[in-house]
């Protein structure tokens, strides 16, 4: 997508010491200025010329001369030599956001440098900086020298950038609506996009049939037109015995909503808590209501339900927010010196952030739920205040582990639509797109993608998509031409797009979804989103199908302890009371079945699965031991040149693999020609990996970036570690950044 250095794009770097000469030749330079490309509906707000975008390598400063502009969509730097781009080096470029573009929603923090001191910029400024530093949410760092820019232009561009990236916004003022209005007649849907959107009753019925959940669950339209609850989608699935009027009783709260059904009949459900009440009479009514609801999903000995209260017995959103705030600082590096200064204490900083531990806890919780459903044949009910944060995260991970369909690209996109978009995850608030409340900004969806990356990294052949796909998906959170990640609920989207309004004269706006990848990438670039190692599940003929179970054949034979036919005395009554008390907002002790016995079952299930060969089309569990949870290097380190392994790591292996695929295809074509048979069109291997020696471990985001070969470390620590060769050997031995 975007590149982190101008060296990559063929832009010529100039030493800042020669700026006086550049400034005097301004007339000659402006003839080379690059035209600003605007999207439909995009408007230029302010600009400044004679700006230098530069980096610091050791003590030398280098930069490239150009214009800095701010529109209602992005901040863009237009270098005077950008026309000299090497087309061979920019094949994986984003068609919407250029390498020197920052969407306004992607800006994290803005800093100014005053007399060599770095300060955070916000509000109205009395004094304007000589240098502007922008930290982005995709972890890019841009530095602009304003020393040679006219004073009026500096004031205009700095004030404009601060205002348009930090001032609170109204929803209707987002660029999303400007773009949708301007491109209304030019919006083309990708015919290859078969993602299930779950915005019709038919979609939910299809999913029920696919998972064999239609025997016990039903799709309902009681919320059509959002008459019952604005938080829920228009259509969803509930247990068959549940009367539809129950859904309306407390506006969708306290209702078990179906997520997914396992091959053995167990199901994953979620429920939002009832509003807290102080009145004893209302509390009694709520308790009676929940007791009746609970009986529809808990009918021993045929159906047993285990409740997982994610609000009180798991992570808090505050923990996630705090951990990520510390974690991201490890990668927002201003210069090479800062990189090597922090490198010596990398492990202690990484551990103190607790981000990797939070990932491990999420994966562990998902495995525990998988064990209950797979081995103990129990329904699992996830509880959360609004069932729209951790419920989305855990339910998605469980399905990813248990359902191979979710590991295909279409299946994964449909999973996100079902559990996150239609599940009411508040993307608008959690990504802080409106800049109205920083406390609400919590990277829950990014945490999910990081957990998915752990699985993709550990079991590559099981996934049809690549880590590059996950990386560009995380980047798409901040591109406001797609509706997918810019609303808090389906109701909010439909209302603001004119689908639920009273004005029947105006045509509803038709927004793009992020799943139309052709909007961002050319076909050749899209090949890097598809995993060449993935092997589709072979289709069996009718004779082979007889006598076979639906899915997950290998794991059904795991030597696990049989689930008990009759539980401990009082178990069901206590479990019911626990559910009711939690939904009523009462905090109590841990679940009665969260005991040592549960931990023993989990350990036996986990160890037994990992002791057998992996069936990539069956149950899939991650390793969660400390060293197995790694940093998602491609996303977090891609803009740091010092973190690259030039011509090495997995990209070199992939390059050779794709060369072999091309060779096999070529031989197949020759064989087919010899037999005079009609050649079916073959999937073309990506030509972006032609020469692995020219690539880095962080390809395709860090192709031939500058590379600082001389580390700058504190003298005391440097002497203690030995010479440079010694340190390099130790680094190779302990940390392979390509596989972190």
TrEMBL record:
Cited Pfam families: 3-PAP, Myotub-related
Keyword set includes ATP-binding: no
Location of the Myotubularin phosphatase domain: 198-636
Domain of life: Eukaryota
Positions in coiled-coil regions: none
GO biological process, one term: phosphatidylinositol dephosphorylation
GO cellular component terms given for this protein: membrane; sarcomere; sarcoplasmic reticulum
Record carries keyword Membrane: no
PANTHER family xref list: MYOTUBULARIN-RELATED, MYOTUBULARIN-RELATED PROTEIN 12
Protein function: Acts as an adapter for the myotubularin-related phosphatases. Regulates phosphatase MTM1 protein stability and possibly its intracellular location. By stabilizing MTM1 protein levels, required for skeletal muscle maintenance but not for myogenesis.
Record protein name field: Myotubularin-related protein 12
């Amino acid at each position: 997508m975007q590149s982190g250095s101008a060296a990559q794009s063929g832009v010529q770097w100039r030493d800042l010491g020669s700026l006086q000469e550049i400034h005097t030749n301004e007339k000659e330079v402006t003839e080379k200025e690059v035209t600003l490309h605007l999207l439909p509906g995009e408007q230029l707000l302010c600009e400044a010329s004679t700006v230098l975008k530069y980096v610091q390598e050791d003590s030398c400063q280098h930069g490239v001369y150009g214009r800095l502009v701010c529109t209602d969509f992005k901040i863009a730097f237009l270098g005077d030599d950008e026309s000299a781009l090497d087309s061979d080096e920019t094949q994986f470029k984003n068609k919407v956001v250029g390498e020197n573009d920052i969407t306004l929603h992607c800006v994290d923090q803005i800093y100014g440098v005053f007399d060599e001191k770095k300060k955070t910029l916000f509000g109205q400024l009395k004094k304007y900086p000589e240098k502007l530093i922008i930290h982005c949410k995709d972890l890019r760092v841009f530095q602009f020298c304003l020393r040679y820019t006219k004073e009026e232009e500096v004031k205009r561009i700095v004030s404009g950038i601060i205002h348009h990236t930090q001032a609170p916004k109204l929803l209707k003022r987002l660029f999303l609506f400007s773009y949708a209005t301007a491109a209304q007649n030019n919006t083309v849907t990708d015919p290859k996009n078969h993602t299930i959107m779950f915005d019709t009753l038919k979609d939910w019925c299809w999913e029920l049939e696919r998972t064999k959940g239609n025997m016990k669950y039903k799709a309902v339209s009681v919320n059509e037109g959002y008459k019952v609850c604005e938080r829920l989608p228009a259509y969803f699935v509930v247990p068959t015995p549940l009367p539809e009027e129950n859904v309306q009783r407390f506006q969708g709260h306290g209702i078990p909503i179906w997520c997914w059904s396992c091959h053995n009949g167990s199901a994953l459900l979620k429920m939002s808590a009832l509003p807290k009440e102080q009145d004893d009479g209302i509390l009694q009514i709520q308790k009676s209501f929940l007791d009746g609801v609970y009986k529809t999903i808990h009918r021993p000995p045929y159906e047993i339900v285990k409740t997982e209260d994610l609000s009180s017995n798991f992570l808090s959103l505050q923990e996630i927010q705090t951990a990520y705030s510390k974690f991201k600082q490890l990668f927002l590096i201003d210069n090479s010196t800062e990189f090597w200064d922090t490198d010596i204490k990398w492990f202690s900083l990484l551990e103190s952030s607790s981000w990797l531990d939070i990932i491990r806890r999420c994966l562990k919780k998902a495995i525990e739920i998988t064990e209950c459903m797979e081995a103990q044949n129990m329904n699992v009910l996830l509880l959360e205040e609004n069932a729209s944060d951790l419920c989305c995260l855990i339910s998605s991970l469980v399905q990813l582990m248990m359902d191979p369909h979710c590991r295909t690209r279409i299946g994964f996109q449909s999973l996100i639509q079902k559990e996150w978009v239609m599940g009411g995850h508040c993307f608008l608030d959690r990504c802080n797109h409106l800049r109205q409340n920083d406390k609400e900004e919590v990277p829950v969806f990014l945490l999910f993608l990081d957990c998915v990356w752990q699985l993709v990294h550990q079991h590559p052949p099981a996934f049809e998509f690549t880590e590059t796909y996950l990386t560009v998906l995380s980047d798409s959170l901040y591109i406001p031409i797609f509706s997918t990640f810019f609303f808090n609920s389906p109701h909010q989207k439909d209302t603001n797009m004119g689908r639920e309004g009273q004005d029947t004269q105006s045509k509803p706006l038709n927004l793009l979804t992020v799943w139309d990848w052709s909007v961002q990438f050319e076909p050749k670039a899209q090949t890097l989103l598809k995993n060449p190692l993935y092997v589709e599940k072979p289709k069996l003929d009718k004779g082979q199908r007889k006598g076979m179970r639906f899915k997950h054949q290998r794991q059904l034979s795991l030597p696990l302890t049989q689930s008990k036919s009759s539980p401990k005395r009082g178990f069901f009554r206590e479990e019911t009371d626990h559910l009711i008390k939690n939904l009523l907002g009462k905090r109590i002790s841990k679940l009665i079945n969260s005991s040592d016995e549960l931990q023993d079952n989990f350990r036996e299930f986990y160890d037994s699965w990992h002791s057998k060969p992996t069936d990539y089309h069956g149950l899939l569990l991650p390793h969660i031991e400390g060293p197995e949870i790694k940093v998602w290097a491609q996303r977090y380190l891609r803009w740091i040149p010092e973190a690259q392994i030039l011509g090495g790591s997995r990209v070199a292996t992939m390059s050779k693999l794709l060369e072999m695929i091309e060779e096999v295809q070529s031989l197949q074509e020759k064989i087919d020609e010899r037999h005079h048979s009609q050649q079916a069109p073959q999937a073309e291997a990506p030509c972006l990996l032609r020469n692995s020696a020219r690539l880095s471990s962080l390809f395709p985001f860090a192709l031939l970036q500058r590379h600082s070969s001389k580390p700058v470390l504190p003298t005391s620590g440097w002497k203690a570690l030995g010479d440079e060769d010694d340190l390099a050997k130790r680094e190779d031995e302990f940390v392979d950044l390509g596989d972190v």
